[in-house]
Design a protein that fits this description.
56% of the residues lie in helices and 9% in strands. By secondary structure, the protein is mainly alpha-helical. A hairpin with a 2-residue loop joins strand 1 (89-93) and strand 2. The N and C termini lie far apart (116 Å). Keywords: Membrane, Transmembrane, Transmembrane helix.
Length: 107
Amino acid sequence: MINSDPMGPLGFNARRRPGSGLLAPFFWAAGLIATALAVAVGALLAVFTAAAVALIAVVGGVLVFVAGFALRARRAMTARRRRDEGVIDAKKVGDTWVTYGWEKEGR
């Protein structure tokens, strides 16, 4: 007789093999242990990934912080260099300051 029901082989009993009834609980327990192990490894990898992302964020923050200090120091040195530009020596003679070596360019 021809099986005319197209949905007949679907369901829980479709994959049962004769003779696997005795070992089925052992296979089920092995599958459960493998699933638990896979979940544990996945959770451990997720924790390591989160720790790596947090470490990258902290190192990046420290790098930006140090770069800010470096730029501030550079800006301060540039302002100091502009302020001292051209004056080689200055002495107080009487009530006035006399500078030596100062000339404006373009004269």
